[in-house]
Amino acid sequence: MSGADVVATGLGATTPLGDDVATTWQGLLDGRGGVSTITADWPTGYDLPVSIAAQLAVEPAGKLKYSELKWLDRCEQLAMIAAREAWSDAGLGAGAVDPRRLAVVIGTGIGCVHTLLSQHEALKSGYRSVMPQFIPMVMPNGPAAHVGLELGARAGVHAPMSACASGAEALAWAAHLIRSDIADVVVAGGAESCISPVIMAGFARAGAMCTRNDDPASASRPFDIYRSGFVLGEGAGVMILERADFAVARGARVYGRLAGVGVNNDAHHITAPTPDSSGQIDAVDRALRDAGLTATDIGHVSAHATSTRIGDAIEAATIMRAIGDHAVVTAPKGALGHLLGASGAVEAIATVLSVRHGLVPPTLNLHRVDPAVPLDVVSGKPREIVLDAAVTQSFGFGGHNIVLVFTS
Amino acid sequence: MTRDEVERGLTEIVQQVNGTDPALATTTIFAADTSLYDELNVDSLAMVELAEAVEERYGVTTNEDHLHELKTFGDAVDYVDSLLR
Fold it and tell me: Is B38's pLDDT higher than 90?
């Protein structure tokens, strides 16, 4: 890797499994599922084929001020909750970092869709019914901007947009900012909240969603032979990344090292991955090269695996060819659902915790492994392994491939 | 309408538009020299809502140029008072 070492010193999350990292991680280890029937004011009459989702375990209301509930889109709210936990977890008190050396990179896949929809409804009552705060509540850089504003980050605030890879790409760009000596500390991750009829209709029309409405608990089943599409989820994950010597100098607890990043693009199709896995393999190769490691060094892969027929099979081939069948694999979306732009960040948090604890959570609902997945996929209970290096993979509509390597 | 009534009305309106939790709203009139932006959190977006609330409550028409000149709570009271004369 060129440039400074990058380490993770703070973690924050709010997910379908819990409203913090500890609960989410324990939920993954326990094999709890976050998918359920949508209840909250869910409209009927649209003939939607999907009525299940991985909704937040805990509503944000109890963690935010009245003004934040009023003036932040739900996606922005989740980013704030995760960022505050990560910041506090990192022990970065007042004055610990020069604001001109502090950056924020928080991406989202869809953006602040709830506000867009509610304000479109408001407009039907007249122009003056639209909130003056509407635009900052709908702009996709809002989650990053609000976090940056709260922390006074002056080394840049960025919002990468790479669909379901946005959260992982945010971590990759954070590493670049630190290695390029632009920042000492970067607050990085992803947020998503778009469980709404029109978004679900869109994904369903694209043929990507699981419609197993009568059995939500087993709907998301990555790598299982009976998988039938992804389950939409919502949440946020934020990681504090720091220049290693900066973290050591302030006596910070280090969870692990972001040793390598691989960012590329399939340039093949707007939604489908390259069938021969070549784009994804290249991204893994880039990440390993960047980390100064080889495939045999990688003991664990946290797969993107969304539970779609084609996507999971292509990714399995990627893991086989780029890393090998020695790696212990898990697919967190069985439990979490697909958090879209937050998924890469939340799964990176789980990956760094796997490296730290030598524990790989099970893949939920993996009862019969697809023969197209000749991998060692953990199911049933967590697997204890000696783990020095792990990979987390994220892929997004638009051809985005992001691979991160974490080491102890 | 007395100036005291305008002050009470604006104290309510400011708290409606500045993100104050209704359960925590005060009835104590803000001091005249309280900064609208720095202390009462009335930014340019909240000012749009403040102007609309004033128009609705008092049946007056506000002027955007004048609104931008308001710096303190006392300025806002003076301005609304002048509109009511």
Answer: yes
- For chain B, the helix, strand and coil percentages under 3-state DSSP, each to the nearest 5: 60, 0, 40
CATH of the domain at A392: 3.40.47.10
Residues A272, A290: Cα–Cα separation, whole Å: 26
- Interchain proximity B46–A132, CB inside 8 Å: yes
pTM, rounded to two decimals: 0.96
Domain ranges of chain B: 3-84
A301 neighbors A383 (Cβ within 8 angstroms): no
* CA-based nearest residue in chain B for residue A68: B19
pLDDT of residue A1: 53
pLDDT above 90 coverage of chain A, percent = 96
Same domain, A186 and A277: no
Instruction: Please report whether residue A254 resides in a domain.
Output: no
Query: B8: which 2 tokens?
Result: 């009470």
Residues A225, A298 within the same domain: no
**Range of A326's domain?**
261-407
Output the pLDDT for position A44.
77
Residues of A marked as catalytic: 164, 304, 338
Instruction: Name the residue with tokens 């009462």.
Output: B40
Q: Measured between CA atoms, how close is A137 to chain B, in angstroms?
A: 12
Closest residue in B to A64 (Cα) is B21
Same domain, A58 and A198: yes
Decide if B48 and A71 are in contact by the 8 Å CB cutoff. no
Q: How far is A111 from chain B (nearest CA, A)?
A: 21
A61 part of contact set with chain B, CB < 8 Å:
no
Checking if the pLDDT of B49 tops 60, the result is yes
**What does the buried/exposed string (b/e) look like for A306-341 if buried means 16 or more CB atoms within 10 Å of the residue's CB?**
bbbeebbbbbbbbbbebbeeebbbbbbbbbbbbbbb
Residue range B3-84, CATH number? 1.10.1200.10
Indicate the number of domains in chain A: 2
Q: What is the count of residue pairs from A and B with beta carbons less than 8 Å apart?
A: 21
Q: Is A1 within the bounds of a domain?
A: no
Quote the CA–CA distance of A174 and A102 in Å, as a whole number.
10
Interface mutation target, options B21, B40, B52, chain A, most CBs of A under 10 Å? B21
Residue A141 in this model has a pLDDT that exceeds 70:
yes
Kindly determine whether residue A133 and residue B21, on different chains, have CB atoms separated by under 8 Å: no
Strand ranges (E), A219-293: 235-243, 256-265
Quick one: A167 and A298 in the same domain? no
Q: Tell me, what's the ipTM?
A: 0.91
Model confidence at A39, pLDDT cuts 50, 70, 90, reads confident
